[in-house]
Amino acid sequence: MVEEFHRRGMKYILILMAAKASQLLTAVLCWFLPQDPGISSTSPTENYPPFDDGLKRDVFIKNVTGHILIGKVWPGPTAFPDFTNPETRQWWEDCIRGFHSKVPVDGLWIDMNEPANFVQGSMEGCPHTDLEDPPYTPRVVGGELNSGTLCMSAQRRQSTHYNLHNMYGLTEAYATNRALAKVRGKRPFVLSRSSYSGIGRFSGVWTGDVRSDWEQLRFSIPAVLQFSLFGVPLVGVDICGFEGNTTEELCVRWMQLGAFYPFMRDHHDNFNAVRSKHCFC
Ligand SMILES: *[C@@H]1O[C@H](CO)[C@@H](O)[C@H](O)[C@H]1NC(C)=O
Ligand SMILES: *[C@@H]1O[C@H](CO)[C@@H](O)[C@H](O)[C@H]1NC(C)=O
Question: For the chain, first and last CA: distance in Å?
Answer without folding.
Answer: 19
